[in-house]
Write a structure and sequence with these properties.
mainly alpha
Length: 279
């Protein structure tokens, strides 16, 4: 399967990851980002446990665990905190600067990275710059710094996914190793910080969080890992950078958030970068 065709697998995760930030935003008002992140990992781990038992693991599990700690425990916690601070429609495009840094990570892992990949990455960075210059919110600059922190840890952690796939470990087993390792760390951190793990939401909202988490981390992340294994890290992360613009459009249409014209323009630059990467 050609790299470009294989990378199309990542379109579904991109769509999922465009929607779930707006859902998570509903939960982080009364609960800490770390606690919400813990429950995300818990729900996903419960679903991925059976595939993990069926397919087993090999030496690649070490890289899966490191990826889970860096990407999901630390990176996603920063991302959720950024969503609380500046909203999903701004946090998503900013955090997706990891697309640019991942090109260098892909090079270091021996992947062939084309000139188009770098051009697309520059467009994505330009979009983020426009986002950072828009709006007058006092917390926007801090929120963008937090989202950029998420980007850094995502880059490091997703490089570990590539290492796990090189070991030919099953992509569902890698997904479980990531969510379960993050779940343990987040559970400990949340308990130390708050002395309890109960979620301050009703049963209905808890079910919504569970469904969103399973779609996000069990389905989305598994397909993301599969795309990395088949197409490579570089092009996979570029395809998933469709998510920020879709997040903005959904936020605008639903009325949940009100991104400005420059916010939308920044998102369009990101999508232009994606299109160029597929030429």
């Amino acid at each position: 399967m050609a790299d470009t065709q294989a990378s199309l697998i990542a379109i579904l995760p991109a769509l999922i990851w465009a929607i779930v930030p707006l859902i998570y935003k509903e939960f982080i008002g009364k609960n800490s980002a770390i606690k919400i992140n813990f429950y995300r990992m818990l729900y996903a781990s419960l679903v991925l446990f059976i595939p993990f038992i069926l397919f087993g693991y090999n030496e690649g599990i070490f890289f899966g665990i490191i990826s889970g700690i860096l990407t999901l425990a630390i990176g996603d916690s920063f991302y959720l905190l950024a969503i609380r601070k500046i909203g999903a429609s701004i946090a998503a495009p900013t955090a997706y600067t990891y697309v640019f840094f991942s090109q260098f990570a892909a090079l270091s892992l021996g992947e062939k990275v084309t000139l188009n990949y770098f051009i697309s990455s520059i467009l994505i960075i330009s979009g983020v710059f426009i986002l950072s210059r828009t709006g007058k919110s006092e917390g926007r600059f801090l929120g963008i710094l937090i989202a950029l922190s998420a980007s850094l840890f995502w880059t490091l952690g997703q490089s570990m996914i590539k290492m796990a796939t090189i070991q030919t470990m099953n992509y569902l087993s890698i997904a479980f190793a990531r969510t379960f390792s993050a779940c343990i760390l987040l559970g400990i951190a949340s308990y130390i910080n708050e002395r309890e793990l109960s979620l301050k939401v009703g049963m209905k909202k808890n079910a919504i969080l569970a469904i969103a988490s399973i779609c996000d981390l069990a389905i989305g992340s598994s397909l993301f890992i599969l795309s990395i294994a088949l197409a490579g890290l570089g092009i996979t992360v570029i395809v998933t950078s469709l998510s920020p613009l879709i997040t903005q459009l959904i936020a605008k249409i639903s009325g949940k958030e009100n991104p400005e014209i420059n916010d939308i323009f920044g998102g369009l630059l990101i999508v232009a970068g994606v299109m160029i990467s597929l030429i």
